[in-house]
Design brief:
NAD(P)-binding protein; nucleotide binding; Dihydrodipicolinate Reductase, domain 2; oxidoreductase activity; six-stranded parallel β-sheet; binds NADP nicotinamide-adenine-dinucleotide phosphate; Gfo/Idh/MocA-like_OxRdtase_C; 2 domains
Length: 346
């Protein structure tokens, strides 16, 4: 495929995130990717998506097999409940088509390991979409922590109010989750992605979880003590089941200073640097479009496909495996009364 030609995307799973985020993201970079076809097991929903996005009815299907047979489709974009992502990866790779799946990588570690194994066995890019990794603030924080001596400890604290009108609560697969940890893996992997992208991978952890809201379908609240592979210690609290206000804060403490990224209000996030020389702290401007990770995910996926180089992927399955494995280890630790658990490797 010539590099100047936009990749033709076949999208499967025409649900909420497909309409609200993938379609606008793809439409915003037309010289890189274009929606060519779509599929959904309930075909009416696929037809509605097609009419809203300009996909001709001749390229609307009710199965992945049909989508994969469409010669106008170069790559697959799969937005399925996570327990179906493994089969989608198997089918796409068998059909010789690169695929991007949404986070979390899978519903359990066995499936996640299979996805990693398939991705390792092929030159076709298999991407896991994790938009937080593309936040512009990440390289900024990484450069700031070089000014705070040795990093000793961090705290990643994310609590947000339970929203009874949350559209995602209506989806059947979130109400009866097959994915380990329910909402903890659904939303929590984003947070793990953020702090591990800055601080490296987690080695061991001890965690407690609880379920606050019946509507969550499973545990929805987590607090964990972490030991990173680097030796840095940390704590991670995540829940979307409590009350106001939303608090999203990453504090990183070093021997000579502290960096605090407060993204409680996504529209006005703040980044602060405190050092021995400046104890009152300096406000660092947060780079623009900090939340706009989704188009960048597609740009990165497309680059890896166009250059036929899977090493260009920012989130290969191994990395997404780790994000998910941290949540799985937390759930396991809590079931054993908070004992220390080593985070699984793929
Ligand atoms: N990165 C992010 O911030 C973010 C945010 C939200 C969601 N996501 C991810 O995006 C994906 C979709 O989430 P969503 O919120 O859009 O959910 P959704 O609205 O429920 O969409 C899921 C789609 O998958 C289809 N589907 C369900 N069961 C299926 C099956 N057995 N076989 C084939 N298709 C099936 C559904 O079709 P029917 O309607 O016919 O059942 C639906 O169109 C998930 O992986 C989720 O984790 C990511």
């Amino acid at each position: 495929m010539p590099s100047e030609t936009p990749l033709r995307v076949g999208l499967i799973g025409t649900g909420i995130f497909a309409s609200q985020r993938h379609f606008p993201a793809i439409a915003s970079i037309p010289s890189t990717v274009q929606l060519a076809a779509c599929a959904n097991r309930s075909i009416d929903k696929a037809k509605k998506f097609a009419s809203e996005t300009g996909i001709p009815e001749s390229h609307v299907y009710d199965s992945l097999a049909s989508l994969l047979s469409d010669p106008n489709v170069d790559v697959i974009d799969a937005l399925l409940p996570s327990q179906f992502s493994l089969q989608a990866v198997k089918d796409a790779i068998s059909a010789g088509k690169p695929i991007a799946i949404e986070k979390p990588i899978a519903a359990n570690l066995a499936q996640a390991k299979e996805i990693v194994a398939i991705a390792r066995s092929t030159e076709l890019p298999v991407a896991v979409l994790e938009n937080f990794i593309f936040w512009n603030v990440i390289p900024e924080i990484k450069s700031l922590i070089e000014q705070i001596g040795d990093v000793v400890y961090f705290s990643h604290y994310c609590t947000s109010p339970f929203n009874f009108n949350n559209q995602y609560l209506e989806t059947w697969w979130r109400q009866k989750p097959e994915h380990v940890g329910g909402f903890l893996s659904d939303g929590g992997v984003h947070q793990v992605a953020l702090f591990t992208e800055i601080l490296g991978q987690v080695d061991t952890l001890s965690a407690l979880t609880t379920q606050v809201r019946e509507q969550s379908g499973d545990v929805d609240t987590l607090t964990a003590t972490l030991k990173m592979k680097s030796g840095v210690l940390g704590s991670f609290t995540y829940t979307s089941a409590v009350s106001n206000p939303r608090i999203n804060k990453l504090s990183i403490n070093g021997t000579k200073g502290t960096v605090i990224y407060d993204f409680s209000d996504k529209a006005s996030a703040t980044l602060m640097l405190y050092t021995d020389a400046d104890k009152t702290g300096k406000v660092i401007p947060v780079p623009d479009n900090v939340q706009e990770g989704v188009p960048k995910e597609f740009e990165n996926f497309a680059e890896a496909v166009q250059k036929n180089d899977k090493s260009l992927l920012k989130i290969p399955p191994e990395k997404a495996f780790h994000h998910f494995a941290v949540i799985v280890a937390s759930v396991e630790s809590s079931k054993n009364g908070g004992t220390s658990v080593k985070v699984a490797e793929p």
